[in-house]
């Protein structure tokens, strides 16, 4: 079984996930802020980072990417539609908020671009990348079928859904993604969102007011 560590980081408490196996290999998902805290957890648990995967490229999900890439020499995986968002504050959203101390800008991605839905095997940790656009055009959910959980970014939350008023967002597309890619997962699968607590497809089908009719 894989181990899931979740951390709520940064000004909007974005969930970063560290997935590790018995050999202490690990994968980082959405390191949005507070790189020093993530690095401390990695060192204190003697983890061996292998890669960074992004559910999407909004500023609150990418803020610690560069520090971690430099610290551990990690490949970064991102949807092809959001590669240009890494160094564009207006696309990644950091340019919209005057209260942020600085624009969030990361180095452009030059490899490991996800262009199609596919399976991954990273240090014997197996999962699938499925496209769940709507919150953003390049949103990806990562499905760990054998281990019974999924990391879905800002597509689906406990009792809510992702906002669609940002660049490339679409309410209709988001609902289609949720219906076709997430609600069809096993009802007891753990859904790890980009903010807030985990949930399950069964819980959201029963109680989520935004999914009435599904």
Structure characterization notes:
The protein is an alpha/beta fold and 214 residues long. Helix content is 21%, strand content 29%. It is globular. The two termini are 31 Å apart.
Protein topology:
Elements lengths: L2 E7 L4 E7 L4 E5 L5 H10 L3 E6 L5 H4 L2 H8 L3 E4 L9 H4 L20 E2 L3 E5 L2 E7 L8 E5 L4 E5 L2 E2 L2 E2 L9 H12 L7 E4 L7 H7 L7
Parallel strand pairs: 3-4, 4-5, 5-6, 10-13
Antiparallel strand pairs: 1-2, 2-3, 7-8, 8-9, 9-10, 11-12
Please outline what is shown here:
This protein is α/β, with parallel strands linked by helices. Helix content is 21%, strand content 29%. The chain is built from six helices and 13 strands.
Query: Which strands sit side by side, in order, in the main sheet?
Result: 1-2-3-4-5-6
> Total strand count, please?
13
CATH superfamily: Ribonuclease Z/Hydroxyacylglutathione hydrolase-like
Fill in the CATH topology. Answer: Metallo-beta-lactamase, Chain A
Q: Calculate the mean pLDDT score and round it.
A: 93
Helix content: 10-25%
Number of domains: 1
Order of helices and strands: EEEHEHHEHEEEEEEEHEH
**CA-CA gap between termini:** 31 Å
* Principal-axis shape: globular
CATH class: Alpha Beta
| Overall SS class | alpha/beta
- Tally of separate helices: 6
Low-confidence stretches: none
CATH architecture group name = 4-Layer Sandwich
Q: How much strand content do the residues show?
A: 25-35%
Major sheet size, sense and barrel closure: 6 strands, mixed
What gyration radius follows from the Cα positions, in whole Å?
16 Å
